[in-house]
Amino acid sequence: MTERTRLVSLAVLASLVLALVGIGPVSPARAAGEKWLVLDRISSGCFSGQTAFKVEFRNLVAGKRYYLDTIVKDLAGTVYMDEYFSAIAPDPVVFDDDWIVVNKNDRGLRTGSFPLPAGQVLAMTVTLRDRYRQPLWTTIVHFTCEGEDFGIASIPGCDQFVPVSASSVVGTFVLNAPLYWAPGELVQPYTEIPAGKTAWVIGVDPSGQYYKIVWVCNVLYVPRYTMGPNFDSVWTGRPLPTGNGH
């Protein structure tokens, strides 16, 4: 066991266990448990203002300032929406129940232009931040601009820059998968991801025996034989990557 494994924080291990049993881990940095969730899809379209989602803010503290962060990008990293501003709860205009994909470039991160690319999987990441601009809750939505289907993953405290490349794919666990911090280096205490869960697959390790995945804000490894394609309406069985993800 390496020093890195021995020193892994109990908070990270607790997050892994809670994620496996389907309970959202609570960040110790926020007592109120503020969340920004995406619940449903309202409309579709590839031009600014046409795609919208139903959202819900939970446990906001009245009189407290929050920052709202929205990034929309494709899997190659091209950014189409960069919205970032603050508001004091419970502003009814800001903290309402819908959120729209619009032509914004508040921080100069945008590298693409509308209309959004039809037929491509896009990722909308909405992050709720505290007054110190630290992330409280992130919801990631995968969608196509002209379709109705979408997929959601909510992660407490993660930022929007999930380390995925254009070749990354969401896969499905076909068998229970033991988690590794590095190839051959099991997470301690021993932890498994149950069959049926899904995760971003970044690539394979140099030996070709492990998939490198994103799980609860960490880059981890699972045996390659435990994962297969995701046959939902967004990923439609897309083959998992065979490169190293760099």
What does this entry look like structurally?
With 246 residues, the protein is mainly beta. It has two domains: 86 residues, SH3 type barrels (Roll); 122 residues, Immunoglobulin-like, CATH 2.60.40. The chain has two helices and 17 strands. The strands form five sheets. It has a five-stranded antiparallel sheet, with no helix packed on it. A hairpin with a 4-residue loop joins strand 3 and strand 4.
Features:
mainly beta; Immunoglobulin-like; 246 residues; five-stranded antiparallel β-sheet; SH3 type barrels; 2 helices; 2 domains
Quick description:
The protein has 246 residues and is mostly beta strands.
- Give the CATH topology of the largest domain: Immunoglobulin-like
Helix-strand category? mainly beta
User: How many helical stretches?
Assistant: 2
- Supply the CATH class of the largest domain: Mainly Beta
Secondary structure tally: strands: 17
Cα(first) to Cα(last) distance is: 26 Å
Strand content: 35-45%
Strand order, sheet with most strands: 4-3-6-7-8
The total tally of domains equals: 2
Mean pLDDT: 82
Would you identify the regions where 5 or more consecutive residues have pLDDT less than 50?
Answer: 1-31
The helix/strand series, from N terminus to C terminus, equals: HHEEEEEEEEEEEEEEEEE
How large, in whole angstroms, is the Cα Rg? 18 Å
**CATH level-two architecture of the largest domain:** Sandwich
Helix content: under 10%
The largest pleated sheet is described as: 5 strands, antiparallel
- CA-based shape: globular
